[in-house]
Write a structure and sequence with these properties.
- The longest helix has 21 residues, at 223-243.
- β1 and β2 (10-16) form a beta hairpin.
- This protein has helices at 18-22, 31-37, 48-62, 91-104, 117-126, 134-142, 153-161, 167-171, 175-182, 184-193, 223-243, 276-288, 326-341, and strands at 2-7, 10-16, 43-45, 69-72, 76-79, 112-113, 130-131, 210-220, 246-257, 262-273, 300-312, 347-351, 361-365, 393-399, 401-403, 413-416, 419-432, 446-453, 458-464, 475-481.
- α9 crosses α10 (184-193) and α11 (223-243) packs antiparallel against α12 (276-288).
- It is an alpha+beta fold.
- It contains 13 helices and 20 strands.
- It catalyses: DNA(n) + a 2'-deoxyribonucleoside 5'-triphosphate = DNA(n+1) + diphosphate.
- This is DNA-directed DNA polymerase.
């Protein structure tokens, strides 16, 4: 069997199976040449997108071994097993478990265990792999071919013409000469291979701050038992967080099925959660609102609870009758509504430091808004006095036709939505200039007025443009209505 793809306007082999490799077919060979040698070929067309999806699923599956998993596209994965090996006995047992499980799923992989990601990648791709002993790692790296450096083809050809064939042949050369001839990238890759340069991997998921899990001797099928395990894991998670004087703002529950499927359920809260009862109630609420209900299938062999985002906790002030404050009840309601309806549908108004009225408030998800957000009353007004600005504004402001005695004065009457309003009282103007650092060149200064008509209705209107400056055709708009 061969896999083909269109490369350089020709169909070429991108992968071959074991039989095809033994018969002399190789990666990069033209399909016409392969057919000339063998009439019967099982041909499959390459699908990089499906390969990427499969690699993502394998990465999710590998989370059962470590939370630090990185993609090494197009065909590889890098796992940081630091601190995780004791869960499986030793390094050999862990690697054997990975190979065994993937073999039962119809996949054959090659792996290598080394002291750093670059060395492990090179051993897995350009050698038989295996568990590389620390005292033998340098010697094994010296025997790797130049291809393991992943350098440009032109540099690779130049090194081979100079009689260099292995990594060891290059490592003994002076660094200055290598940098001058081939650039700093070659030296950087050499240093990364031998661990002289610290290049940590980039995990595809945020590494949890605190993590607890249960590994089942037999796959767990009953959902009632799953809830009991979640309750037990919540107790253990919060016990660890209490020792750190922290509460969880985001918790992720992971369910690893025996058939390799992984389900993740995320819980976000507007305040640090420190109690099992609160988290368990939110988890049950989230499970009940899933469009694709959680299905145990062949059973869960691992259930994990991880605190992804944490925050320092503070003592909650209780009232004299031992009831929580009203803000605590509101926060609980916000959390439940956000889980049931989605965080993008439960919003909270957050003040913005700007003097432009329509930008003074920003709507953000309520669970993400800071609890210490304060609001300053505009222009020195006081909450006990009548408001100087309406609470709700028109977006955008609506155009009105205005009649006035003097061009720069307040309007005497205006027409809005085909209804005429005669003004008996006007206050202003309040002049607001555009934000020159973000406005376009055509933005004009506004003069705002608080108006009251003969029927007692109060409006907030502004004139865009100033006659005294010679602005072309100043216009009037109604921006809001007072209650």
């Amino acid at each position: 069997m061969v896999v083909v793809d269109k490369l350089a306007n020709a169909l070429r082999l991108t992968a071959v199976d074991e039989k095809a490799a033994k018969a002399g077919l190789y990666k990069g060979m033209a399909l016409t040449d392969a057919r000339a040698q063998f009439e019967r070929l099982d041909i499959a067309f390459a699908s990089p997108r499906k390969d990427a999806v499969l690699l993502e699923k394998l990465a999710d599956w590998c989370d059962r071994y470590t939370p630090i998993v990185a993609l090494d596209e197009p065909h590889g994965l890098i796992l940081d097993l630091t601190g995780c090996i004791h869960l499986f006995g030793d390094e050999n047992s862990l690697v054997q478990d990975i190979h065994k499980r993937l073999f039962h799923s119809g996949m054959i992989v090659r792996s290598a265990l080394a002291s750093n990601p670059a060395a492990a990648r090179a051993f897995a791709r350009h050698s038989p792999g295996g568990n590389i002993a620390m005292n033998d790692e340098t010697h094994r790296l010296y025997t790797l071919p130049l291809l393991s450096l992943d350098i440009e083809e032109t540099h690779l050809a130049s090194l081979k013409r100079a009689g260099l064939r292995s990594v060891g042949d290059i490592d003994v050369l002076p660094r200055a000469a290598l940098t001058a001839r081939f650039g700093a990238s070659l030296v950087d890759r050499l240093d990364a291979l031998f661990g002289r340069q610290d290049k940590p991997i980039t995990p595809r998921r945020i590494v949890p701050v605190c993590l607890v899990e249960r590994r089942m001797a037999e796959p767990l099928v009953a959902m009632e038992s799953v809830e009991q395990i979640l309750l037990s894991l919540s107790d253990e998670l919060f016990h660890r967080l209490q020792q750190r004087v922290e509460g969880a703002r985001e918790v992720e529950a992971c369910f690893f099925r025996a058939d390799g499927d992984v389900r993740r359920i995320s819980i976000q809260t507007g305040r640090p959660v420190t109690e099992t009862r609160t988290l368990f109630r939110l988890l049950k609420e989230r499970l009940s609102t899933l469009s694709d209900p959680l299905d145990a299938g062949y059973g869960f062999d691992i259930i994990r609870l991880a605190a992804v985002l944490v925050e320092r906790t503070q003592a909650i002030q209780r009232s004299l009758d031992n009831r929580t404050q009203e803000t605590e009840e509101i926060n609980t309601l916000v959390d439940r509504l956000s889980i049931r309806l989605g965080s993008s549908r439960v919003l909270r108004a957050v003040p913005v430091d700007t003097h432009i009225p329509e930008r003074a408030v920003l709507m953000e998800p309520a669970i993400k808004a800071k609890s210490d957000t304060s609001f300053e009353w505009p222009l020195g007004s006081h909450p006990d006095n009548p408001p100087e600005r309406p609470i709700r504004l028109f977006q955008p402001a609506e155009r009105i036709e205005v009649t006035f005695e003097v061009p720069d004065a307040a309007p005497a009457r205006f027409v809005w939505r085909r209804v005429q309003h005669i003004i008996v009282l006007a206050e202003g103007p309040e002049r607001i200039a555009p934000e020159w650092w973000r406005e376009h060149a055509g933005a004009l200064t506004r003069d705002y007025y608080r108006l009251e008509d003969n029927k007692g209705r109060r409006f907030w209107a502004f004139r865009e443009g100033l006659y005294e400056r010679g602005d072309p055709a100043p216009r009037w708009f109604l921006h809001g209505i007072f209650a």
